Backbone:
C-alpha cells in the first residue's frame, strides 16, 4: 500500500486521490511544529472544538513522545507546498487489557471529503500493523481513535472503515455564581501548599489512583517529564490532601490564560481529580473540588470545567 520514495521526504500512497499539487511526506523535525499548530488552529472551529494550543505546547508534547518515532510514524499532506493535513500513530499496552494501536489526524476544512483523509488513515493503519508485527502476538489488539461530537467528517470516515464506539466522555462546566455545597475535609487529612519535592510523590499517587480507570496504561518517565514541562502546570493551584507523608487524593487545578482570552471567559479547570483506594468513599474528592471552586472564585474566575469518563467506576 505504501512506499517510501525518499527518506524522510516523499511518500507514495497507493489509492491517494488525484489532486493537483498533492504530495505526502515524512516529518521534518522541529520546523514542523509550526505546521502542526497551524493545522490544529485551522481545524478547531469547523470541528466545534475549543482549544488554544501554543508552539510551546506542541514542542513539549513532541519532545516527550513514548512508543512513537515521529520520523517513521507521522504523515504530512501538502498541496502546492502548503501543509494542509498531518497524522500520527503510536501504541500502548493497557495494564490489564489489550494492546492499543492509536491513530489520529487533523486536516484543514477546505480539503476534506476529497479522499485524502481515507488515504492517510489507510497509511496510518498500515504503519500500525507494521509496528504490531514486531510485538508479541498474544492477547487482544485494537486500532483506536478518539473524536469529539463536532468532528462529523472524521466520525463518518472512521465508521466507513469499521470503527465503532467503545467509550464516551463528557465535558462539564459549573458556574461559580451558584452556592457551593457543604464539603468538610475527612478527619485526619489536610491540604498543604505544594513544594518542589512533592511533585514526584503527587505524580506517583495519581498514577496509582488512575489504575482503576478504563484503558489505564502505566506511565513512562517521558510522561512525567512532559507533565513537569507542561506550560499549564501550576502546582500553586493544586489541592493535595495528605495524611502524614502519604498523598491521599488531589485536584490538579490549572488556568489556561490563552484559552480564556480567545473565548472571552474566566474559567478554571478542576482536572486530575483522583483519590487513592484507601481514602475513597469518605467525601475527599468532593471536599477538594469545593475548595478548588472557592479558590477559583476568589481569583475572579466565573466558571470551572473538567472532562469526565461517562462510565467512571466511582460514579464521578
Residues:
Amino acid at each position: 500500500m505504501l512506499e517510501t520514495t525518499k527518506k524522510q521526504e516523499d511518500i507514495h500512497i497507493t489509492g491517494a486521490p488525484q489532486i493537483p499539487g498533492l504530495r505526502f511526506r515524512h516529518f521534518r523535525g522541529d520546523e514542523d511544529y509550526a505546521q502542526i499548530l497551524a493545522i490544529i488552529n485551522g481545524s478547531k472551529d469547523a470541528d466545534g472544538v475549543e482549544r488554544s494550543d501554543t508552539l510551546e505546547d506542541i514542542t513539549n508534547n513532541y519532545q516527550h513522545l513514548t512508543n512513537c518515532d515521529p520520523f517513521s510514524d507521522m504523515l504530512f499532506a501538502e498541496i502546492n507546498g502548503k501543509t494542509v493535513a498531518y497524522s500520527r500513530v503510536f501504541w500502548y499496552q493497557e495494564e490489564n487489557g489489550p494492546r492499543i494501536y492509536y491513530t489520529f489526524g487533523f486536516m484543514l476544512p477546505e480539503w476534506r471529503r476529497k479522499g485524502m483523509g481515507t488515504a492517510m488513515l489507510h497509511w496510518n493503519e498500515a504503519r500500525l500493523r507494521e509496528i504490531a508485527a514486531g510485538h508479541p502476538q498474544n492477547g487482544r489488539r485494537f486500532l483506536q481513535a478518539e473524536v469529539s461530537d463536532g468532528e462529523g467528517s472524521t466520525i463518518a470516515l472512521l465508521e466507513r472503515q469499521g470503527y465503532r464506539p467503545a467509550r464516551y466522555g463528557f465535558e462539564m462546566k459549573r458556574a461559580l455564581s451558584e452556592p457551593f455545597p457543604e464539603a468538610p475535609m475527612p478527619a485526619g487529612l489536610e491540604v498543604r501548599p505544594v513544594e518542589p519535592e512533592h511533585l514526584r510523590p503527587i505524580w506517583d499517587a495519581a498514577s496509582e489512583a488512575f489504575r482503576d480507570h478504563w484503558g489505564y496504561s502505566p506511565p513512562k518517565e517521558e510522561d512525567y517529564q512532559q507533565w513537569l514541562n507542561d506550560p499549564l502546570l501550576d502546582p500553586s493551584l493544586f489541592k493535595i490532601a495528605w495524611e502524614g507523608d502519604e498523598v491521599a487524593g488531589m485536584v490538579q487545578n490549572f488556568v489556561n490564560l490563552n484559552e480564556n482570552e480567545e473565548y472571552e471567559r474566566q474559567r478554571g479547570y478542576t482536572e486530575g481529580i483522583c483519590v487513592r483506594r484507601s481514602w475513597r468513599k469518605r467525601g475527599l474528592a468532593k471536599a477538594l473540588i469545593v475548595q478548588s471552586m472557592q479558590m477559583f472564585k476568589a481569583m475572579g474566575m466565573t466558571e470551572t470545567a473538567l472532562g469526565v469518563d461517562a462510565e467512571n467506576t466511582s460514579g464521578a
